[in-house]
From TrEMBL:
Subcellular location: Cell membrane
Broad EC category: translocase
Protein species of origin: Microvirga tunisiensis
Name assigned to this protein: NADH-quinone oxidoreductase subunit J
Catalytic activity reported: a quinone + NADH + 5 H(+)(in) = a quinol + NAD(+) + 4 H(+)(out)
EC numbers: 7.1.1.-
Transmembrane regions: 6-24, 31-49, 55-79, 91-115, 147-170
GO MF entry, a single one: NADH dehydrogenase (ubiquinone) activity
Keyword tRNA processing listed: no
Keyword Phosphoprotein: no
Length: 204
């Protein structure tokens, strides 16, 4: 076994084990930490395949931003996970249906590759040689030309998800003093300034 194969099996094994622990761990903080470990090892696999740009994006964006954001949200929000688990049986049928659909899609993908491996070997957009164009430049040309509309649709989906997260977490809290911009703008000198005559050598 060569060194490259050894590193591949190492990264792949840790990635699969970390992905399993993400869904198996009962502590949400530990799940996020296992998710970060899976991302880092997946970045190692990208490096071995020569996709250094994807590895960098995976570490900077997903590990440095998304996973850390998940960690802070889980640690800072007072989420009652016991109450969330109470409705598990209610959503079990639709969750099982979605899981079966995903399983069928994976079987179809693996079956298509086993039946006709030439589908993978002859991509629609050939990858140029590294001496002609860098990996990052080739990815940018494909992403912003052939798959431009799909890229914009993905950004729109992320925007909707962000707005949904803000709406779900935005709630009124009792006892918190908030600013009222309309009242502040409507203040006059009579309502904003109070002149009081203080006796000499006495307090208010």
């Amino acid at each position: 076994m060569t060194v490259t194969a050894a590193f591949f099996y190492l990264f792949a094994t840790i990635t699969i084990a970390s992905g399993f622990m993400v869904i198996a761990s009962r502590n949400p903080v530990q799940s996020v930490l296992f998710l970060i470990l899976a991302f880092v090892n997946a970045a190692g696999l990208f490096l071995m395949m020569g996709a250094e740009f994807l590895a960098m994006i995976l570490v900077i964006v997903y590990v440095g931003a998304v996973a850390v954001l998940f960690l802070f949200v889980v640690m800072m929000l007072d989420v009652d996970f016991a109450a969330l688990r109470q409705g598990f049986l209610q959503y079990l049928p639709i969750g099982g249906l979605i899981g079966v659909i995903f399983l069928l899609e994976l079987i179809l993908v693996v079956g298509a590759y086993a039946v006709d491996p030439g589908l993978v070997r002859s991509p629609a957009v050939p990858i140029p040689a590294p001496d002609v164009m860098t990996n990052t430049e080739a990815l940018g040309q494909v992403l912003y030309t052939r798959y431009f509309y799909f890229f914009q649709a993905a950004g729109l989906i992320l925007l909707v998800a962000m707005i949904g997260a803000i709406v779900l977490t935005l709630r009124e809290r009792v006892g918190v003093r908030r600013q009222d911009i309309s009242k502040q703008n409507a203040r006059t000198q009579e309502t904003a300034v109070e002149v009081r005559k203080v006796p000499f050598r006495q307090g208010i």
